[in-house]
Design goal:
Layout: H1 7-10, E1 19-22, H2 30-38, E2 46-50, E3 70-74, H3 82-86, E4 91-92, H4 100-106, E5 113-118, E6 126-128, H5 136-142, E7 145-151, E8 158-159, E9 162-164, E10 170-174, H6 188-199, E11 206-209, H7 213-220, E12 229-230, E13 234-235, H8 240-244, E14 260-262, E15 264-265, H9 269-275, E16 281-283, H10 286-289, H11 292-295, E17 301-305, E18 309-311, E19 316-317, E20 320-321, E21 324-325, H12 332-341, E22 346-350, E23 362-363, E24 381-384, E25 387-390, H13 396-406, H14 409-423, H15 425-428
Parallel strand pairs: 1-2, 1-5, 2-3, 3-4, 5-7, 7-10, 8-16, 11-12, 11-17, 13-15, 14-16, 17-22, 18-23, 22-24
Antiparallel strand pairs: 6-9, 18-19, 20-21, 24-25
Length: 431
């Protein structure tokens, strides 16, 4: 039987010196997190693990007066803790998202308490983690205590992200709407990038696609394709039209054919309603979805990812601006690697040529302190609104020439000068 109680009572199961995992995506268990924060005077030295998440505002425990109480170890720098980490109060743990479950399971990152936001139980008494399987599956598996919001607003998703109500030490009934992430309307620049990528995607491909204007532009340009599959990290509203039209039918996938596969979801209520008891969708542990050797089993994997900046050799920075960490590695490396191994697979880094402030995103060298998320050895295609730079199999001078050709015109002269200085005659002879 479930032990239903109040949020204030439930969080009394958190002890000083505990380590606490907080579920993420758009399902942060806000009621329980606030109740935990309200106990700050009774707690000390509580390690908080947070993964990819979209919060309504800054996390309540990220305040200077709680700096000795809650020690934030971020596994992905989400919007609700970004400022806290930038101010030096918390830290991030570098890791591929698909490897983090292994850190929980090995005990390297111990989990005493897992705080969840789950669906109402089904007829058999199982609650679903809904929009956030990702790290929650492994965290719950290893946690000594599980506390959960049983949320009227959470969809019931199939897959391995379920827990029987009897396994929840303290449950709190809530009707707390999930955060909704507006669908990004692609700009003209993003539409051009999307069309370039869509032209290179064959029928029968398996898609991994991210979040934002460029992914939505790619999806919007695929309406005439046939028999596409979906094996991705993040589910978004952008895939719904293709599923509804039968463009995504998952008929040619090798891994869970006939089903879309994801690990987390972020979007509108329309997406969450689609997910509720949807037999054609499975949400899985991110160690499973992001395993490159499972990804490669699917045919024609198309891995489409973004970046903060790219240098003239093809090094990709995607998680930082200089030394400031702004996100995480996520699954970019996992899908770029798995996609490159897939039969007929292709991988793409898609970026506008310049930032909103007019700075080139293709640079002679990465900004000092910037981290390399995807190495130059793994890159196949860099796509901007000016075209596609095909880098695979090209030497460094040839790569520089290809990247300069898709850079913003205002940056090309400076980039050519840098390439001449760096690569000498081997670059000059290409001009």
């Amino acid at each position: 039987m479930a032990h239903y109680t109040t949020a204030a009572e439930a969080v009394k199961l958190i002890r000083p010196h505990s380590s606490v995992y907080i579920q993420g995506s758009t399902s942060i268990p806000e009621v329980l997190v606030q109740a935990m924060t309200d106990r700050a005077d009774e707690l000390t030295d509580v390690t908080v693990y947070s993964g990819f998440a979209v919060g309504r505002g800054d996390a309540p425990y990220c305040r200077p007066e709680y700096k000795e109480t809650f020690l934030v170890n971020s596994l992905f720098v989400a919007n609700n803790i970004r400022r806290w980490l930038a101010d030096g109060y918390g830290q991030s743990i570098p890791a591929f998202l698909g490897e983090i479950p292994g850190l929980f399971r090995s005990g390297m990152l111990p989990v005493d308490v897992a705080i969840l936001n789950v669906s109402r139980p089904n007829a058999e008494g199982f609650c679903s983690y809904g929009v956030s399987a990702d790290l929650a599956v492994s965290a719950v598996e290893m946690a000594k205590v599980v506390i959960a919001q049983v949320n009227e607003a959470m969809p019931f998703s199939y897959g391995d992200a379920v827990i029987h109500i009897s396994k929840i030490a303290a449950a709190v009934e809530v009707n707390d709407p999930l955060v909704e992430v507006p669908t990004a309307v692609p700009s003209e620049t993003e539409l051009r990038i999307g069309r370039y990528i869509a032209e290179m995607i064959p029928d029968g491909a398996t898609l991994q696609i991210g979040v934002g204007g460029i992914p939505n532009a790619v999806l919007g340009a695929l309406s005439d394709h046939k028999h596409l599959g979906l094996h991705t990290e993040a589910m978004t509203d952008g895939v719904l039209p293709l599923i509804e039209r039968g463009v995504i039918d998952n008929s040619q996938k090798a891994v869970l054919p006939g089903k879309s596969v994801g690990s987390l979801a972020l979007g509108s209520r329309r997406l969450y309603d689609y997910m509720d008891y949807c037999q054609e969708l499975e949400m899985r542990d991110v160690a499973w979805t992001n395993d490159p050797f499972r990804i490669r089993q699917n045919p024609k994997v198309m891995a489409i990812n973004s970046a903060v900046e790219v240098d003239l050799t093809g090094q990709v920075c995607a998680d930082s601006v200089g030394t400031r960490i702004i996100s995480g590695v996520g699954g970019q490396h996992d899908f770029m690697y798995g996609g490159s191994l897939s039969e007929g697979g292709k991988t793409f880094i898609a970026i506008p040529s310049i930032t909103e402030k007019g700075h080139s995103k293709i640079k002679a060298m990465l900004t000092p302190g910037a981290g390399v998320v995807t190495t130059r050895h793994m890159i196949q295609h860099i796509v901007t609104e000016y075209g596609v730079a095909h880098l695979q199999g090209k030497n460094l001078a040839q790569r520089a020439k290809a990247l300069i050709a898709v850079a913003h015109p205002s940056a090309r002269e400076e980039l050519e000068k840098a390439a001449c200085e760096r690569f000498g005659y081997s670059f000059l002879r290409l001009k």
